[in-house]
Amino acid sequence: MKSESHAFHFSLIAGVVAARLSLYFPILILLLSSTAIAYLLIKKKKIPLIVFILSAIFTITVHGNSTGNMKFMKDGKYSFVALVSDLPKKIEDGYITPVMIKGVSSNLSPVLITPLLLKPGMEVTGVGSVRIRETRKNPGNVRIKNTISIKPAGAVKVRTTRSFTSLIQSLRWKLLGIIQSGFSKETASVITALTIGYRSHDGKRVYDYYRRTGL
Q: Between 185-195 and 203-213, two packed helices, what is the crossing angle to 10 degrees?
């Protein structure tokens, strides 16, 4: 009975951790999860298997569907506190960086547009010009979230925070640098898309790179 209780809690924690890490290391977590599930099936430990699957689904569902009060109702200038939540992408006039903003509904995707590089774990406070792009569908008929783009107006305050999420993102950032410095642009784009879920280009261009490299 005691061993079953331990297995239950271990499986619960494993499912939650796997669900979170799969957002950042999709291939690695898929392989590890598949191995764990195969092991549980062979050993016929059905309860841990069920808990593992359900806890992973629960965590992903909660993460994707949690909502907050929509702070930005229309275009204009707003004060904001934004936490860098993903890796930045280089654009023509700087960087575009996915962020999390307290009070913004999860069906919105806030991004900061800045001339300077913002690394994972940084918290940015200031006033910015906000532009909201409505939900639409791309040519592949895939629904895209509403996007809130924020361009800081004037000086901003930046500080570094420490959390589990920022630790994972920092690790992805380091891996990105290693891959980009060790491979050609095309090969690096394919490898980063497959290993850490990072796309420096749109999906079609990454696919073209994939065909050219022959990986």
A: 110
